[in-house]
Amino acid sequence: MTTDQILLLGSIAVPAFVSIILFSGLGRSESFVKNLALVGFGFPFIAGIVLFLNFDGSKGGYCFEIFHPRMGLQELKITFHLGLNGVSSPLFAMAGVVGLAAGLTAIHSGADRLRLFLALLLTMQAGLMGLFASVDLFFYYLFHEFALIPTFIMIGLWGGRDRRSIALEITIYLTLGALISLGGLVALNVMVDAEKFDFPSLSSALSQFALAESTQFKIFGLLLFGFGILVALFPFHTWAAKGYECAPTSVSMLHAGVLKKFGLYGLIQIAAPLLPEGALAWSPYLLWLALGNIIFVGAVAIAQKNLKSMVGYGSVMHMGYCFLGIAVCSSLGAGSGVMLMVAHGLSVSLMFLLSTYVYKRSGTFEMDEMGGLGTKTPILACFFVAASLATIGLPGFGNFWGEFGVFLSLGQNPDHHFFLYLAALGIIISAIFGLRAVARIFYGGSSDELLEHEKKNPITDLSFSEILPAGVILSALLFLGLWPRGISDRIDQEINSRYSQLSSEQSMSLPPCCLLDKGDLENNQSLSIPLEKIPSSKPSAEK
Amino acid sequence: METETVVFSLLLLPFLSALVTLLCFRKLGNIASLLSVATSGGILVFSLFLIFNGENEVFSWQTTWLRMSNWELGFGFLIDAPARLLLFVVSFVGFLIHIFSLGYMADDGAKARYFGGLSVFMFSMIGITIADNLIMIFVFWELVGFSSYLLIAHYFTTEEAAQASKKAFIVNRVGDFGFLIGIVLTYWTAGTVNLVELADLVDFDPTIVSTVLGLALACGFIGKSAQFPLHIWLPDAMAGPTPVSALIHAATMVAAGIYLLVRIDFMFTEQVLAFFGILGAGMGLYAGFCALVQRDIKKILAYSTLSQLGYMTAAFGLGMPGIALFHLMTHAFFKALMFLGSGSVIHACHHEQDIFKYGGLRKKMPVTALTFLVGVLAISGVNFLSGYFSKDAILLTAYNTNMPIFLILYVGAILTALYMFRLYFITFEGESRSESASSAHENGALMTGPLILLAILSIFGGYHSLFPLAIVEPLLPDIELVAAMPNHMWMIVLGTFAWVVGGITARNLYGRVGEADPLEQKTPVFFALCQSKLFFDQIYGFYVQRIQDPCARFFEVMELLFISGLMVRGSAGVAGLLALIGKAFYVGKIHSYSFWFVAGTIGFLAYAAGVFGN
Questions:
Q1: Which range of residues forms the domain containing residue B15?
Q2: Chain B residues touching A407 at Cβ < 8 A
Q3: Is residue B566 part of a domain?
Q4: With 70 as the cut, is the pLDDT of residue B171 above it?
Q5: Which residues is A81 bridged to in the sheet?
Q6: What's the pLDDT score for residue B473?
Q7: CA–CA separation, A300 vs B50, rounded Å?
Q8: Under a CB-based contact definition with an 8 Å cutoff, are residues B380 and B387 in contact?
Q9: Least Cα separation, residue B560 to chain A (angstroms)
Q10: Percent of chain A beyond pLDDT 70?
Q11: By C-alpha distance, which of B109, B113, B84, B107 is closest to B10?
């Protein structure tokens, strides 16, 4: 094994191992627990950065591959296969960065039963690293579950108001989403006669025996809605803001920042390139649903008075751009979607982190009860303004390139221009709620509630242990903004090779909804796709 | 030195200066301010080097910034004649304003933030000036918006600044929304966004250009240059420190809109140009009326800026981009001069901004008064000062090509003289009308020095032959065109008449005033109409409070009711209901279970016997 491969394996094994030690209760002292946890979060961070730098995209395909055919179930074509490609490499690094920041926050959070909290968070971290490092689709799904299940427990145990019911709702919702997507993956496994259950084998098998268009439509539908629920696709998004508002900060950071990218990653890396006709057929519906994310959820975000739920709705809103990138069915759209995923993961986790910093000082998340924090906490204000502007897509931060690329991809097909005009409204919507929050929290004079609170709890600016995680994330965002080629070249290469088929499909420019007939719809009901949730109006591809 | 090294230094210098200030000198305001001034000095040196070393050639340089699918975005520079002119204006005026700021902000508590913000601004403004493609322009376009936001919010503890900064950014985003769509559409129609390639393509195939495309691109200009209907942010932006108003909201950033138009002038059809003509002339007149009734010295100057930007827009619409740039340059001189002059007055009068609380300042602040008077004379178009040449060139063009626009602009010119002399008489003549005005003193050399230099430029800035050819090169073709036009003598008479009438009326009306506006006493209806500014602020407020926010709340309720309530809770409810029904069978009594067992058996047998059909 080369060093790189050891790093790749270690990024999963180290946090998992540390978490086992913590679970087992070895070592009594608190500093031991904290230092050990720091190792658990630090290793994936270093591995992420090193592998990001060492990645050699010139050949295309996977780097640092680890392959163990004995591990897994060969009868079901499942094998243990790790590796990073152009799309997963930046996401893997992002997971390391956000994981370290979330870990540092958790270590300094002073939560009760800290050992258990850190152990669960490390399990989550191991799952997240494994998710992006998996080549085999079964392990990809398995690692996702590893990361997902601690979320429920942590919300239920350490959550805020109404944590029990919210934990239950989130569990039901996300388990349902995971189940539907599992259905899609199983269908892929069964229907496609491939040697192994990973993308390259599936792809080469499909190039010989393509699936019928109606089958593609069904499987893609399962994956779309399964993954869609996990990514909070409109109208399945209501769990998200509520859950993030309730969850402990480090869980919100890891879930909203990294875990939620699982679904998009599956759609961009696997579903759309393997099932191009299915993707094209679903595209008109997806376009509308993504607009729902941007306009509807964006408007809801404007109405929020609670900082954390505003950040939650804002993060759901920006997922809409990623979905648009997928719905466009072009390599430009998908590649920009990936760029936005990376930047969004960073910016959203930063926003959650900073909201908690604000909470620590004001004692509330209600924005009307704050005000004037800017003079008291200038460093926090500086970070918050930067993070808000990154979120709303200011150039210089990574989010801009993703959003811009998605807009550009929408311009390619005249049928999509309508969506371009409406989606671009998002840049105004997010400016409204982002800057309002800044003004309400930091500008103007302090509210009476804050002055009252300040009497008992003197307000201090950020400490070094608070600056560190925020600074790490912000630097990563700036790097992406100033030098987008740092990630775009490898993404582009991988996406281009995966989407070559899809692009040629599109050049035929067949209005995709003509391919739909009634029989397909009826068949789908038997597959229990919630069709009633799809807008009944004819999609605009015929506009 | 290699030219690209210089260009990179020019761009990186202010960026690094801002970064170092942020990281190291946050609490050391004095060092931060000196660093920023030194940076702007360095920018001036590099700019002058670029201007004079280029030998009037076009310099372009490019590298790939981002490649995705077929889309390749370049990071490149294009330094041609218009870019040189703007570089000169930005770096020179910027340098003077930096120096002025040293004096003006001497007692400010957050100097580091202020000077850091100025460096961010210089970075992004230079970026706009030398960018070689539309997407790169858009990037820096947003960044100047950001620095403007940052600097308007300098006194963020006041509610006024908090609201104004937000408004400025959001209204600009509305403009950028159209600009963004315009860029995307341009890319897919022409296949490139590089300015040089676009110009060649349009030259080769004029059908690329369409009115819709031109209007979409013009949205960016309308937002940044605060033209109708997005003009509402500029007067509010006066909540920022006065040197910022001078630099960003008068001399350079708002003028960047005009510069954008000049950069992409080949993208506009006849219809779009006609639209610009009407838009600009209308703005010139409208803002003039608004300026006439303001009491706040900075608001008067802000509306005057709107009005002058209208003149530049009109000049561009009349097909004279060179003249628009000419007016941009002279305007930068005299408007920066007057804004800094007002800053000098405000600083001396302990941040009093109501002109009716001033009076008699000429004796107390002679240098400020004299230089301000030069600015007033220049903007009014007094013969042989800088404004006279640029404005009369616009008026003459309009006179010879488009009579209605000329009439509007001409009334606007009379108004300009009227409200400017009004400002001068009320502020500097008569008796002091407040404690703060009577105790005012002239400011130090850091503040008067830039005033004197700008006053000299405001006097001589119109003589383009006094400038090096490398700077004024883009103006010459259009100036020659105007020089060849008929009716020159007639125009001189009309132009002189305009400022004389405006000046004398102002002298009669405002020569001796009390604390009340004489115009309000004489014509209350007209005054109230002007003061309403045609209700645009109210419309904006109405939109936010009665449309946008209720809409957002409506969506929130919809989500709560239908998605969260009906769909999610509803489906959970169905499951719960089934559970309840199921639970009803488990009553815990043996005869009940045996009853259901028998019923089930009978049902099964009946099914097996085919009672329910096959």
A1: 1-166+235-264
A2: 180-181, 184
A3: yes
A4: yes
A5: A67
A6: 84
A7: 50
A8: yes
A9: 9
A10: 92
A11: B84
- B286 lies in the same domain as B396: yes
Domain annotation covers residue B215: no
- Asked if the model's pLDDT at residue A192 lies above 90, the reply is no
Q: Which of B71, B156, B170 sits opposite A431 (nearest CB)?
A: B170
Q: Could you tell me if residue A238 is left (phi over 0), alpha (psi between -120 and 50 degrees) or otherwise beta?
A: alpha
CB contact under 8 A, A300 and B552: yes
Contact across the interface for B568 and A173, Cβ inside 8 Å: yes
For residue range B29-70, what is the model confidence (pLDDT) as tens digits? Answer: 888 889 999 999 999 999 988 888 766 678 888 888 888 888
B44 and B86 belong to one structural domain:
yes
B507-539 confidence digits (pLDDT tens): 888 887 777 788 888 888 888 888 888 788 888
Considering its fold, how many domains does chain B have in total?
A: 3
- B92, B153: one domain: yes
User: Is there a cis peptide before residue A484, judged by omega within 30 degrees of 0?
Assistant: no
Q: How far apart are CA B91 and CA B8, in angstroms?
A: 15
Side chain identity at residue A479, one-letter code: F
- The pLDDT-based confidence of A341 (bands split at 50, 70, 90) is very high
% chain B with pLDDT above 70: 98
B173 → chain A, closest CA residue: A428
β-strands A63-68, A80-84 pairing: antiparallel
Cα–Cα separations (whole angstroms), residue A339 to A91, A293, A332: 9, 18, 11
Cβ atoms of B133 and B195 closer than 8 Å: yes
Distance CA A51, CA B343 (A): 55
Per-residue pLDDT at A510 exceeds 80:
no
Cα A257 from Cα A251, distance rounded (Å): 9
Task: Determine which of A162, A173, A238, A413 to mutate to test the interface with B (most B C-beta atoms within 10 Å).
Answer: A238
A420·B181 Cβ contact <8 A: yes
Q: Is the pLDDT of residue A528 over 50?
A: no
Residue of B nearest to A376 (CA): B157
The answer on B476 and B553 residing in a single domain is no
Residue B555 with chain A: CB contacts under 8 Å: 296, 299-300, 303
- Same domain assignment for residues B372 and B504: yes
Q: Enter the pTM of the model.
A: 0.88
DSSP code of residue A445: P
* R_g of chain B computed on alpha carbons: 31
CA distance A389 to chain B (A): 9
Same domain, B403 and B438: yes
Which of B172, B277, B160, B281 has its CA nearest to residue B222?
A: B172
Q: Which residue has the tokens 């388990």?
A: A175
What is residue A97's predicted lDDT score, i.e. its pLDDT?
A: 93
CB-based contact A235 B567, cutoff 8 Å: yes
Q: Is residue B15 part of a domain?
A: yes
Q: In chain B, whose CA is at the least distance from the CA of A335?
A: B68
Nearest to B170 among A435, A489, A492 (CB): A435
Cα nearest neighbour of A436 on chain B: B166
Highest mean pLDDT among A26-30, A41-45, B50-54, B473-477: A41-45
Distance from CA of B605 to the nearest CA of A (A): 28
Fill in the amino acid letter for B42.
G
Residues A435-460 have a mean pLDDT of: 86
Q: Which residues on B lie below 8 Å from A294 (Cβ)?
A: none
Q: Are residues B94 and B68 in the same domain?
A: yes
Record the tokens describing residue B486, joined without a space: 């008929």
Pick the residue of B12, B19, B25, B68 with the most A CBs within 10 A to test the interface with A by mutation. B68
- Kindly report the nearest CA distance between residue A178 and chain B, in angstroms: 17
Please state the rounded mean pLDDT for residues B88-101.
92
Give the C-alpha separation, B181 to A427, whole Å.
11
Compute the mean pLDDT over every residue in chain B, rounded to the nearest whole number: 87
B288 in the same domain as B156: no
Strand-pairing partners, residue A84, are A63
B153 within a domain of the structure (yes/no)? yes
